[in-house]
Design brief:
about 375 residues, alpha/beta, Rossmann fold, 6-stranded parallel beta sheet, 12 helices, 13 strands, about 40% helix, disordered C terminus
Length: about 375
């Protein structure tokens, strides 16, 4: 089995996903059989995981840049001659499938991991219809689709995107055996947010909620920064004494933060999956998450955390006010067990490789659902 992974903007969740699945593929298929095609500017995000990492030309989503990227994709597929081309994300999948239009003879199988359908984002009705139409038109060039949650599968079907072969495989993360430290029970409620400081991730929802929190025994740490030209975050004056802005943090520092936190807050307005919720759970941290996307599939209310309506910041404030460290630490323990059961990198990687085999041997079977 020879596999070529193609990604475009892989920073963040896609890079984490690749770090979870590629090592297992190298182990099973061999170092000579697993390749990555990633824009050079993102090579640091996936450093050390691909035995052979090819560089694609990419300088943003302008017409000329996208044309150069398409030519790199087309050239790489012809040079590698893979059995499976695994496309990650909307633009990578678009160009991989367009390259198949120019393929002569038996072409590779195309497996598409959407990492969140574009038509599920906060876009206009016309944009949503356009994204869905493009996906439907490209289905004949798609041999298998991996949905990263039941929510994403249902959204695809609701928008008329019904692949001939599809599966649901939850994202996974490597386990941290031996690296989990007990939570400090010092009487101060420690709240953590990790992510981009933009509208999608809902940082404004958290800051508004904090203005309504009554308790004084609270310390909030925010790890992340504005991207994509967003304005720098303005922390309201009345909560500045409670909030510590940390900027971008490396993985070592993030693990320290998850380990210290009593509760991780994820107020996303839309989310294909939400890998940072898993980062918290694997370090026994309770999760308060919005009711959007796959987050209600990850968090079990009252067991591993809480779910709140992202349009009601006051609801989040009440959850923070009523939380006790003992309750949160018990939820964290439950969350860790749920992570081990459903969301490990090993489970995700094995399910994906099994789906590769299904795609290569597709016959009478039309649909398989795995990773539930």
């Amino acid at each position: 089995m020879r596999v070529l992974h193609v990604g475009e903007s892989v920073r963040g969740g896609v890079a984490t996903y690749l770090r979870s699945i590629v090592p297992a593929q190298v182990e099973r298929y061999g170092e000579e059989e697993v390749f990555g095609l990633i824009p050079e500017r993102f090579h640091d995000d996936v450093s050390g995981i691909f035995p052979t990492l090819l560089a694609a030309s990419w300088s943003g989503r302008k017409p000329l840049s996208l044309l150069k990227y398409f030519l790199c994709v087309h050239k790489a597929i012809r040079a590698v001659r893979p059995d499976i081309v695994n496309a990650h994300g909307t633009f990578a999948a678009l160009f991989v499938r367009l390259a198949m239009l120019f393929w002569l003879g038996k072409r590779p199988k195309v497996v598409y991991v959407s990492h969140g359908w574009a038509f599920t984002q906060e876009v206009s009705k016309h944009e949503r219809l356009a994204y869905a139409l493009i996906e439907r038109l490209l289905l004949p060039l798609t041999d298998g689709v991996v949905h990263i949650s039941h929510d994403q599968m249902q959204a695809a079907h609701a928008n008329g995107v019904r692949p001939r072969l599809e599966t649901m495989i939850y994202n996974g993360m490597p386990e941290l055996r031996g690296e989990i430290v007990p939570k400090p029970a010092d009487g101060t409620l420690k709240v953590l947010f990790v992510g981009r400081l933009d509208r999608q991730k809902g940082i404004g929802v958290l800051l508004e909620a904090l203005q309504h929190v009554q308790r004084q025994d609270i310390a909030v740490k925010i790890a992340g920064d504005a991207v994509r030209g967003d304005e720098p975050l303005q922390v309201p004056e009345q909560v500045k004494g409670r909030v510590q802005m940390l900027g971008w943090c490396n993985q070592t520092r993030l693990r320290e933060l998850y380990g210290e936190a009593d509760v991780f807050v994820m107020p996303s307005r839309w989310e294909g999956f939400g890998l940072v919720a898993l980062e918290a759970m694997r370090q026994k941290t309770a999760v308060f998450a919005s009711n959007r996307g796959a987050l209600p599939e990850i968090v079990v209310p009252g067991v591993t955390g809480r779910i709140f309506d992202v349009t009601q910041p006051l609801e989040l404030a009440k959850l923070i006010d009523s939380a006790s460290q003992a309750e949160l630490h018990a939820m964290g323990e439950n969350g860790y067990r749920r992570f081990e059961e459903l969301f490990t990198a090993d489970k995700c990687a094995r399910s994906l490789m099994d789906f590769y085999s299904v795609c290569l041997n597709a016959g009478a079977m039309r649909t398989q659902t795995a990773g539930v």
